[in-house]
Structure prediction request, 331 residues.
Amino acid sequence: MKTIGITIGDTNGIGPEVAVKAAFKQNWGDVRIVLIGPAGYLLDVCEVFGFDPPDPWDGSNDPGSVSIWEPEGTLETEVKFGEVDPAASTEAARWITFAVKACQGGVLDAMVTAPICKEGFHEAGIEVPGHTELLAQLTKSERVGMLLVGGPLRVGLVTRHLPIREVPDAITPEAIREITELVAEVLPRLGVQRKPNIGICGLNPHAGDGGTIGVEDRDIIAPTVEALRKDGLFVDGPIPADTIFHNALSEIYDAVIAMYHDQGLAPLKMLAFDIGVNITLGLPIVRTSPDHGTAFAIAGKGVANASSMVEAIKTAIQLSETAASTASATD
Prediction:
């Protein structure tokens, strides 16, 4: 029996809504779902959508139950739908920290995080680009990465939340190697039965055309791909970004490594906007999230689609089960 914790994210966004909808609208079998956040507000959200009030989490709740776990020190901040509020971001960070400790202590088998507001984090003095970097800090993980999964695509990112003008300088052999190795390690746990075949995007149009349209593909990406091949990984590249996703849809590649955020996420979200999942690689715990933001524009209107949160929970369960089986095999 698995216990999955869901941090509800920024209370001014759609996080609490999609967390509650996903917890109750799906049959999770014997999996226990624990909503992590302010109990009073979560009970209000459950009432709004007609769900029975969950019991407080006490560690012994029944299989298939939905519970609320309010971390010590949680403040019932005023909910201001659609607004950036550093107080809400401070609380969101508190719940993330709490869930990480619960996973590390074996109380939770995995954590799923609802969206945070990065601007609110900045205003609150929490100087991280996003969840990934905060989780790396909390778990003292040196090698982390983002893998986005949606429909037929799995996409890893060499760079994450960087301005476009900074991307070329961040494309290094070490960065390409790190995300490619992390993706190769997790793919068998996501159901890839054979040794994974990974396609690596070029940075420039036409993958640089032999150096005539930028030299990064020729001088950095291609030598790194060759070195990865020599290390035994099945990799191909650099492949032009306007071609590689077609190849992935044709099942030539089990995953694609994109050089920057929108290069990878644009095709994935086009095909799987409502069911995308973000997986943080390299952590000693399992963490997933829906692949969308706080959606301030529709917060509080009751119309948020919880499909991505449902898929994130499913993926967290899958990864926690394969983590347990891997640990048993190596004992």
